[in-house]
Amino acid sequence: MAIDTVPPLIAAQLNYLLSHSPLPIKVEQMWSGSKNHGLLDRFTLVIPFCLDYIRWDVIYNALYPLAAPDIIFGPEDESFHPYHTAGGEGDLKSPNKSLSDWNCKDPTRLLSLILELRELYMTYQRKRVGGVEDERVKFELSTIVPREGIEMYMSSGIEKTEEVKFAVPLLGVDINKMVTGCPWRHQQKIFLQVIFPVGKKYMSAPSAPRLKLVDSPELKALFSIEDFRLPPWLDGMCMAEYLPILEGLLQSQIVDAVSSIDVRRKFIVALAPLFGRPVEADPVFCRKAAFLTSSGVFTFLHFNPSGAPIKSSIITEFPWSPRWESSEMAERFFDFLVEECLNFKKYCNESLLQQR
Amino acid sequence: MDDLPLQKIQISGPTLASLLQRFSSSPGDVDGLLFGRVTHIAATTFADDDPTTTVAASSSFDSPTLIATITSFICSNSNSTFYDSAGRLNLLSLRRICSDNQTLSLLGWFSGRRKTPLRPSMRESAVTSSLSSKIQFAFQVENSPKSYTLSPCVFLLLTTPFHDQLIHTHEYRAYQFRLSTEFFEPKTLDVVNIGPAFRGHYGAFCPNSQFPMLPCELRVSSSMAEDGNCESESLKSMKRVSEDQRVLDMYAEDFDVGRLNRLIGSDAANYTGELEDMYKKMLAKLEGLARLVEKSSARVLEQENHNMKLRCRVAGLE
């Protein structure tokens, strides 16, 4: 059985795309389009769009390495034609200039092609949303247009009702910069997803749209949006009114989260004089630290009946108060642990006696 | 050019089988051009209702019933033969390919790609759109009371199922590309086969290779007792005779042009015998041609293998 390999030129383009893409694009599957099944020259790209994913099949031909790839879009996008229609053949502003000058040896071409097509796809969806015959959607669209970076999407399935989805990026601040020494490769952002159903008839009291906060995956180290409660959408509100309220609340919570990093850092530093230097500590978000310490002298190593050394259970209840200073907190913590050690020693002795 | 909808697309059984065979035997993706004709079928509306209330009848006058019939194709065993990576047509190569098929119109094109979804891709949309907007390839609808012209708007897509299945090995779908909506409308693809049940369907088929028009009253005089004045005449007639013989030699092997006059008129006593003989000679000619094709196919295959090795080297696959 032949081992499936990816032809080197295609592999170079794909690897460049995966490592240099500003968006987290993934490859879902790879397969071969040639008769002999050996060469993997086709793959599905999963591209983030409007807080969801679109899937595009990229079709290369291993036997024709100099040719540019072809793309098959999703089944709902039959009317997405990114090429220039019958008009000037020598149109220099043609969106597919990158395709006609394809250089198979240049590994950056695939990424630039995909990003270009994604931009065109965004324009196409914008046009679709703009053409929706729903007064409310039209109104919302007009108020939201000045904001940058909004992506929108119109979904129309045969069984599903038509919906218009907006992905609004929140907070103009750069969260990455707020965290000193942040390890994130991608720009972290929080988005509000707003979904409006498309209805032909006018409703006198339009209901609130479906709202959801979505964050980029690495943000939860700093701030968890699950803990955040969305402000209520009052009757007759529109996005232009709702967004500033939401952003204000989010902003204050993010600032709190950033300052709490400092608090945690101070606490870890305060533990050091009592417990010794930490074996390991997270310097950026300061959520974890590991210390190796001892109290009293243990001359036995206790095993339970199955032969494994006994461990105490993880302690979740310990003395804590927001009013204590870090040093006082550290001291109280130290005292608590000493007591716990004694308890644990007693427990081990008892279990030893039980075994006898 | 008129933007009229086709009612359905027909293809002859051998043509479709041949297409599928070319696709399945090719190592990579294929594409090619489809030739045939579009005919107008007089709509027969038998209405039981009062004729003044039938709205349906009036609509049939607005849009005529058109049926496209694919009779032949040209397949290159590779991709992107008449277009470039961006989907723009290479008009020169297109015209060159089409010039060999003068009797048939260019109906559209087809594309075959393995293990891909059965819907048009980005480049296929571009090519079909360009092709259907080219006025120079527009053709007339046959059998039509009014004059209609259509552009090559038929697109046939062939794929294979994603996972190797035992149930079926190929999938295909035929589309008509409507320039007005820029939409690929799927159409039923009727397969017309040989047999008594299909005899009526062959109305749209007519021979591609017709017997040439040759004069049958030839008197080649080879006697030397010819008047000197007639020498130039006989030279001209000899030239004509050799020209006609050359044309006949393209269809039959070793059949003398002079025997043609035995098929008509009072000399046609041995009509059956002569016709059978000519038919035998035509079959012999076909056999000879087939052998020639075999030999040249072997050489083409050799060249293709050589090209494939070079391509693999460029791709770094050695």
TrEMBL record, chain A:
Major site of localization recorded for this protein: cytoplasm
**Is Repeat among the key words of this record?**
yes
Keyword vocabulary terms for this entry: Apoptosis, Cell cycle, Cell division, Chromatin regulator, Cytoplasm, DNA damage, DNA repair, Mitosis, Nucleus, Repeat, Ubl conjugation pathway
Q: State where the protein is found.
A: Cytoplasm; Nucleus
Stored InterPro entries: BRE
Name the Gene Ontology biological process terms.
Answer: cell division; chromatin organization; double-strand break repair
Per the record, what is one GO cellular component? cytoplasm
Q: Does the keyword Cell wall biogenesis/degradation apply?
A: no
Where does the secretion signal sit in this chain? none
The similarity annotation says: Belongs to the BABAM2 family.
What is the name of this protein? BRISC and BRCA1-A complex member 2
Give the originating organism: Actinidia chinensis var. chinensis (Chinese soft-hair kiwi)
UniProtKB/TrEMBL annotation, chain B:
Q: Name one GO molecular function term.
A: polyubiquitin modification-dependent protein binding
One Pfam family of this protein, by short name?
MPN_2A_DUB_like
Q: Which GO terms describe its cellular component?
A: nucleus
Q: What InterPro entries does the annotation carry?
A: FAM175, FAM175_plant
- Coiled coil spans: none
Show which residues constitute the signal peptide: none
- Spell out the protein name for this chain: BRCA1-A complex subunit Abraxas like
What is the species of this protein?
A: Actinidia chinensis var. chinensis
